[in-house]
Amino acid sequence: MKTFQKFSLLLALALTLNLRAAAGDGAKFSGIIVDTQGNPVAGATVDFYQYPVRMGFGRSDLVAKQHATTDGQGAFELPAFSGMGVVVVKKAGNAPVWRTWYAAPPQESQKIAFSTSATLAGVVVDEAGRPVADAEVWVASALNKARTDIGQPNFVFGNIARELFSAKTSADGKFRIENFPGDAQAMLLVKHPGQALRQTANPLRYDELPIHAGQEDITLTLDPAGIVTGKVSARGTDQPLAHAVIALQPASQMGYFSFDMSAVVSAADGSFKISDVPTGAYQVMATFTNEPIADWVADPVPVKVAAGQPASNVQIQAYKGGIVEVTVRGKNNHDPLAEAGVSVNSEDFNRSGSTGTNGVVFFRVPPGQLTVFANKPEWSQAQAPATVTEGQTTSVTIELKAAFKVTGVVRDASGAPVAGAEVGVYPNYSGLGSGAKTDAHGHYELSWQQPTWAGSQNRTFYLLARHSERKLAAMQEMDETTKSLDVTLKPAMSVSGHMQDAKGKPVTEAIAYISIHQENSSYTISREPVHADEQGRIQAEALPMGERYGWYVSAKGYGSAHQEMEAADPKADHYDFPPLVLKLADRRLAGRVLGADGKPAAGVQVWMNGDGQPNGNAITDTDGQFAYDAVCAGPVTVSANLKGAYGSAEAMGGDTNMVIRLNARNTYTPQAPQTLTGTVYNSSGNPAVGALVVVTPSWGEINTAKTDTNGDYSVNWQTQMGMRDAKYFVIARDVEHNLAAIEAIDTNKTQVTLRLGAGLSISGTVQDATGKPLPHANVNLNMMAGNMGGMVDYQPIKVGSDGAFTIPALPMGQQYYIYASAKDFGSMSKSVEKNQSRTNSIQLSPFKLKPADRLLAGRVLGAEGKPLPGAQVNINGNGQPNGNLRTDENGHFQFKVCAGPIQIYAWSQSGSGQNNSGSAQARGGDTNVVVKMGVRQQPQRANAMRENPLKLQPWTLTALVTWPLNHKTGTIVLLSLQAAVLLGTAGGIFWFTRKRG
Amino acid sequence: MPAAPAAASRPQQPPDHLSALAVASLICSVFVPLGSIPGIICGHQAKKRMRRNIFLVGERMANAGLLISYSVLVATLTLAGIFLLEHWYNHPVKVLRESPTALTALQWRVVDEVIMGENEDDHDVEGQMHHTTTSKGKPCHITNRGGSFNYTMKVLPDRKMTLNCRYSGDEKKNHEFDIAVDDQIIATQNLMAIAPDHFVDVEYKIPASLTRGKTQVKVEFLAHTGKMAGALYGCQILKR
After folding, report:
1. Cα separation of A884 and A732, whole Å?
2. Do A844 and B121 touch (CB under 8 A)?
3. Would you call B146 and A943 a contact, using CB atoms and an 8 Å cutoff?
4. ipTM, interface predicted TM-score of the complex
5. Do B23 and A989 touch (CB under 8 A)?
6. What is the spatial distance between Cα A136 and Cα A192, in angstroms, rounded to a whole number?
C-alpha cells in the first residue's frame, strides 16, 4: 500500500504542480542528448508530456504537449514548459531514455544520456504451467535511477510506457522486449482474454520495481480472471444511471500498476462490466463527471473477486448528497484564484479538482463533515472544515497567501560564489518543490510558504544551504519579511551509522531521512533519502555544525527506526550514531474487523503502526478481513475506522487471527466546527495588528489566527468530544508587547471584540538535580479553562542554552500549569494559581529534574497468569518521566526511570475485543515488576514507597513495639546480654548446689 | 572383717533442698522487664518458705532474683514515666485561631509560612499525587489516596520549633497521614471531625534534634495506605 500511497502522492503533486503549466510563465527547457560515450546525438526526438490541465476522473494519463528534435550538437529546446512533466527521448538504435520533473522547471541546460540497451524476456504461462500464446506483455511502469529534481526516481508509465516497451508472446509463450534501458527497472503487465496476471508480493518501496533490465528468465503466471459486473442506479428509484466512471481500488496491499484496468463507463441501462480482474478484494468506485457539478455521488462498494467466478451483481446506489461550493481567493486582495488545487476529504470520500477562472469549484459529496484543502503553486496552502447537509449547498471560502520569495548569493569562506549548492527553507511546509540550486554565480531564488495551520505562526524558519561535495553548509534564520539573504558556507559536519539486522548483518538497502532538532521539535531536511552502502553504512554530509541531528531509517523487508543525537556539539565535525538494528519484516498480520453488532465490517480502513514497525494500511474485504504481509516481530497497533466508528487492538507480528471490534461507545461524532470573528484592539483603542488569536481548550489540530491590518481575525473552533459543560475562551496575545486579552465564549457567539491589556509573563529554568541547565528540555503550558486544561500556544516553548524559558502575553488572573520534561530525565509540573497570576511577571523556582538513570522492568501477565505479549504499558509518577510501550513476545517491558515510586498501568485487548487492564506500583530500580490483568494494586502508603522510609515518631507505642524490628543490632546486643545473664544464673545455681551437696 | 560401725551409728539428717521459688525468682528476673514482677513474688515466697523450712536452701539466689527484679522494675517504671511524659509533652495541640486578633498574635512566632496557592512554589512543593485546590472557599493542598507532598521551610538553628498546620475541622474519614520533618515522623494526624464547623490550627512540636544547627527542613505530609494527606490550608514554622 505504501507504493500506492507514495505514487498517489507523486501524482497528486503532479496535478498540483501541473497547474503551474497553465499559468504559462514562459520558462524554457533546454538540453543536450548524448550517447553512452558522451557524444552528442543529432536527430533524436524529444517528446514532452504532462497531465491535462484539468484532470479527468478515473485514471488520467500523461498527454503529449511538446515535441522537438535535437540539432547537430545534440541540443534541443522546448518552449513554454513549466511544472511537472516527463521528457522521453528516442533515437533508433538506442534505448529510449526519460526524465521526470516533478516541481520546478530546470533552469540550466539538461544533459540527458542514452544508456545501453537491454532486454526483458521470459515466458507467460497459465496456472497449470502451460505456455500462453498471443498474450500482450508490456511495461506498465518503469523507472531509471537517475535522480530527479526532488530526489525521486524517473518514472514513465501508462500509455507512454506501453507504446515504448511491449511484445506479444509466441506459441511457446515466450516474449522478448528489446531496447529497454540498461539502468532501468520495470513492472510488467499481461493481457490475455479471460486471464489476469497473478499478483506477487507487494513491493515495499515505491522506488523499486520487480523486473530489472537484462532479466531474461521472467515468468509471468496468468490465473483465470474474475469479472465484476453491476449496475449503477439512483437510490430509492432504481433509475439507471449512465456515464458513471467505474473504477476498482484494491482493498489490500497491491502495487498501483499491478493490474490493467482502464476506466469503464456505465451503459445507458446503468450496467457495467470489468473483465480480466485478478482475484482479490476491491472497492468499486463510481464517479460522475458532469460539469461543473456532478449529478450524483456514490459510496464505494466492497467486492471480492474469485478466480474464474463472476462477481455477484454489484449494485451501486447513487444519491444526490450535498454540494460544496469552494471559492479560493488571495488573502491580500481577496481576488479569486483560478486553477487552484482543491480537494474535499472525509474518512471515506476523497475528490479533488481545480478552480475555474472565477476561483470556484463544486463538489457533490455525501452529507457529513468534510475537510476542504486548497493550494496553488506560488501560494500557501490552507484548509477549512465544512458540514454538508443532504440537498443543500455549503459554501466554503479559502484564502491563500502568496508564497514568499527569497533570493540571494551563496558564497564560500573566501567570498567566492558557490555553484550547485542546494538551498531550501526549513521547516518545509511547501511540499517537494521548495528547494533550489545555486547557478554558476552562486545565485539562488526560491519561493516558500508558511502554512496556516496550528503551530506555524510563530515558527522560526531557516534558510539551509548545503554543498555535499565540498562538505560545506550554512543555516540562517529568516522570516516572511526576508526578501534577500546572502549566505556564507562554512565547513560542515557529517553523521554516519551502521544499519544492521538482529544478527548483525548489514542492511544494505536501508535509507535514511535526516532531521534536525530545534525548538523541541524535529523536522526533516532531506530532500532525498541517503542510501546505505554495501557495508550497511549511511553517511550524510554537509550538515551545519552545532546542530542536533537525527534520522529516520527504513529498509525494504525491514521495519523502521529513529535515532537522534543526545545533544548538539558545536565543535564536532562528525557524529557516529550507534549501530541501528532494523527488525526483519518477515511476518504476516491478519485479522477481521467486526462492527458494533458483532458482524464482519467490510470496507473499513485499517492501519497499523508500532515501534520499529513499517507503517501500513488496508481496507477490509466483504468478510471484514484484512492482512499485511510484511510486519516485524513484536507489538503492533492496528486501528480501524468506519464512518466514525473506531476500534483498535494490539497484536504481535505474526498474529493472523486478530479481531478489531468497532465499538459503538467509541463512535466519534465530530461537533460542527464554528467560526469566530472579531477585532482585537490594543489598550489605546487602535486595531492590534499581528495578534495571535486562539480558542481554548482544544486538542489535536486546531486553527489559530493572526489579526490583519485592521485588527480583524477569523478563527475556527469546535467543542471537544466528551467535554460536556466545558468552558471555552478566546484568547488574543501580542507576544512582542506582553499584552493579552481573554473572553469566555459559547457556541452561540460568532463575534467577539477583544481589547488587549497587560499580559502575564511566566519564566523559569529547567535544570538537572545538580543545577546544571537542561537546554533541550520540553516545556508545556496549559491554562485551566473551567475544570479542563487547554493550551494557549501551539508553538514549542523555547528553552535557552541556560535552561531558561519565558512564556509571555498570557491573560492575567488565570490558573496555569507548566510542565517540564527532558530526555533521560524525569518531569516536573508547577502551577500558577489565579491569585498569583494577577501580575505582569512570575519567575518560577527552577524545575529540577531527576535523572532517569534507573531501570524499571517487569512483565505483564494475563488474568490466567500467562505472559501477555503486546500489552500497552504506561508509567507515571511524580517527577518520573512519562512513558509507554508495548510488551515484547514474552510479556516483558523495560523503561528508564528516576528513583522513587512509579505507577505502572497495563492494558490490552483480548481476541474478543474486550479491554483488560491491570496496575502495579513499583520503584525506580525494580526489575521484576509483575502487572497482572484484572489486578489493580492500590497505591501504597506513601511512606512505604519512599527511597528511605521515614523514621517512626519516638515516644509512641508503635515506636516501642517496632523498636526491635528497626534496631536489629541493639536487639541482638540486648538478647545476648540476657542470654549471658541467664547462662550466668544457671552456672551459679550449678555451682551453689554442688557446694551445698 | 568388721563392718564400719561409725557410719552406721550416725543419726539420719534430712537432705537440704534448693528452693524452687528462689530459682524461679532469679530466672524471672532476667526476663526484662516482664519477669520482674513474678521475680519479686517468687523471691519473697522463697524467702518466706526458707524461714519455715530450715532444710530449704537458696537464700542468696532469692536475694539475687529480688535485687535484679526490683532494679528492673524501677528502671521500667522510670522509662515508662519518661515515655508518658514525652508522649504528653509532644502531643499536638489544637488551637482555634479564627479571629484576626488571634492570627495577629501569632505573627511574632512565625519563622516561615506556606500560603496555599501563593507561595507554595517558593517552598519547593513536591510530592506524589498531590495538588492545590480550593475547598470550603479557601485554597488548600491535598493528595489523592496514598499520595504525599512536602515543603522546604525555614527554621532557626538555635531555637526549638513548632510546626503549625491549619486544617478544616470537619473533614470526613480517610484523611489520615503522617507528618515528618527531615524524614522523621513527628506526628500522625487523623482529620476526621477534629473541630466541626471550624478551621483549626494544630501545633506539632518539632524535636530539637531535627532543627538544631539547621536553617531549613523538609516538612512532609504522607497519606496512609488508602487515605489522603490534607487538606492543608496553611502551614507555619513557629518559635516555640
Report:
1. 35
2. yes
3. no
4. 0.72
5. yes
6. 7
Interface test with B, best of A838, A941, A952, A962 (most B CBs within 10 A): A941
Architecture of the domain delimited by A674-758: Sandwich (2.60)
**Residue of A669, A672, A666, A675 lying closest to A639 (CA atoms):** A666
The residues facing B161 across adjacent strands are: B206, B239
Nearest to A201, CA basis, from A556, A541, A713: A556
Q: Can you give the pLDDT at residue A672?
A: 61
> How far apart (Å, rounded) are the C-alpha atoms in residues A95 and A74?
16
According to CATH, the topology of domain A854-945 is: Immunoglobulin-like (2.60.40)
Measured CA to CA, the distance from residue A450 to residue A330 in angstroms comes to 14
Quick one: B230 and B183 in the same domain?
Answer: yes
pLDDT tens figures, B76-114: 889 889 888 888 888 899 999 888 888 888 899 999 999
Tell me, yes or no, whether B225 lies in a domain: yes
Domain range list for chain A: 2-220, 225-319, 322-400, 404-491, 493-581, 587-666, 674-758, 760-849, 854-945, 953-997
Q: Three-state secondary structure along A842-871?
A: EECCCEEECECCEEEEEEEECCCCCECCCC
For chain A, the distance separating the N- and C-terminal CA atoms, rounded to the nearest angstrom, is 106
Instruction: State whether the Cα torsion A788-A696-A778-A816 is positive or negative.
Output: negative
Q: Do B61 and B30 belong together in one domain?
A: yes
Q: Do B188 and A877 touch (CB under 8 A)?
A: no
Superfamily of domain A322-400: Immunoglobulins (2.60.40.10)
Chain B CA closest to residue A956: B87
Query: CB contact, 8 Å: B80 with chain A?
Result: no
Is the CB of B55 inside 8 Å of chain A's CB atoms?
no
Chain A residues in contact with B60 by the CB 8 A cut-off are 992
Pairing of strands A574-576, A616-619: unpaired
pLDDT at A989: 63
Nearest residue on chain A to B33, alpha-carbon basis: A978
Assigned CATH for A493-581: 2.60.40.1120
- Identify the CATH number of the domain in which residue B133 sits: 2.60.120.260
Torsion of CA A101, A103, A106, A111, to 10 degrees: -20
Q: Which of B68, B126, B148 sits opposite A942 (nearest CB)?
A: B148
Residue with cell 480480466: A276
Burial environment of residue A333 by CB neighbours within 10 A (0 to 12, 13 to 18, 19 or more):
exposed
Q: What is the mean pLDDT of each run of 10 residues along chain A (997 residues)?
A: 43 43 51 88 88 48 79 82 75 87 64 88 92 92 70 76 91 92 88 80 60 89 86 88 84 52 81 83 81 84 76 84 91 85 81 86 87 81 83 88 87 91 80 70 84 56 89 88 90 93 88 82 78 91 90 87 82 89 87 82 81 79 81 84 74 82 56 80 90 79 77 82 71 91 86 92 91 89 77 79 92 89 88 83 88 92 85 85 84 90 80 68 89 73 61 77 81 82 69 58
Contact list in B for residue A939 (CB cut-off 8 A) is 129, 144-147, 225-226
B219-234 per-position pLDDT tens digit: 999 998 888 998 999 9
Taking an 8 Å cut-off on Cβ atoms, the answer to whether B147 and A939 are in contact is: yes
Q: With contacts defined as CB-CB under 8 Å, which chain B residues touch A946?
A: 222
Window 83-112 of B: residues touching A by CB (8 A cutoff) are 83, 86-87, 90
Record the pTM. 0.55
Nearest Cα residue in chain A from B206 = A953
Residue of B nearest to A974 (CA): B32
- The CATH code of the domain at A760-849 is 2.60.40.1120
Rounded to the nearest angstrom, the minimum Cα separation between A893 and chain B is 23
- Domain of B68 in residue numbering reads as 14-90
